[in-house]
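S2.1 Query sequence (Ribosomal RNA large subunit methyltransferase E)
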Amino acid sequence: MTAQSGKGASPTGGGQRGLSVRLRTARGRSPASQHWLARQLNDPYVAAAKAQGWRSRAAFKLIELDDRFHLIRKGMRVLDLGAAPGGWSQVAVQRGAGTVMGLDLLPIDPVPGASFLLGDFNDPEMPARLQTLLEGQADLVLSDMAPNTTGHAATDHLRIVALAELALDFALQVLAPGGGFVAKVFQGGAEKQLLAPMKQAFATVRHAKPAASRKESSELYVVATGFRG
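Output structure tokens follow.
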């Protein structure tokens, strides 16, 4: 693997924009499939992730969040919720985390330095299982989870906020004092309901939209540090 530290907002080094790639054929593909494939082919973060050995373009989101908020420290225990395909776990390992545990309903190919558990984070027994595997509490809980979208913006927004609330409840059970929490939400107002419990539980709570998030996407991240315990 040739994963790099990825400093800065652009994975392409600020060079000239590449020529647009067109699909050779649309035969047998739905319009939605054509749009997704064309976007992938012309996404500099997708190309950079492949070139640098990251599992997905999402790795650059965590790189930028860590550069800005200094989330990952050497030797810390990191829990990656919704870890598939493993990009965020890769970043945590590469940036010096001592123990990295990923959890997902989908199987994940091995990442050197990380361990993955196949299961549902909403399982009532999961916090205890993860603490056993981590050999203690987590120092950082990451969640890039998102539900399957319906295409209805208001519904999708409410669903992802509900998922973030579950991730927060889960984090409050497994975090060590001083720990941090990161979760994806969509802009739309309902994410404000997360702020009250987060401000009670953490010293600092902020919002961020990494450059690696697509411009047309309403996603942003809540970043909480200084868990009060």
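DSSP finds seven helices and seven strands in the chain. The chain has two domains: 21-52, 59-227.
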